[in-house]
Amino acid sequence: MKGDECLGGSLAFVILENLRGHEDIEQNRLEALRKEIESDGLLKKAIAVDEKTWIVIDGHLRLHALMLLGCSKIPVLFLDYSSPKLRFRANS
Length: 92
Known about the structure:
Helix content: 25-40%
CATH superfamily: Conserved hypothetical protein from pyrococcus furiosus pfu- 392566-001, ParB domain
Strand order of the largest sheet: 1-4-2-3
């Protein structure tokens, strides 16, 4: 994808409980991120979610950290998971 192409999507605040996660979470990484968000007082990156199913595409750790912090509404970037413009890479 070229740098000038945009995936589109929409940013919204949604009720955290409505999102559907599917990954296991490493507890030590979760606690470190929870502390970072609490210390900074902000979330640096919205959680990417499929606009049709509300399944989390990217941001499971952030989702769980926000749960621990007692957040009820969180920032989400809705994307079309079936779009050919959307590309994924494996985490290392």
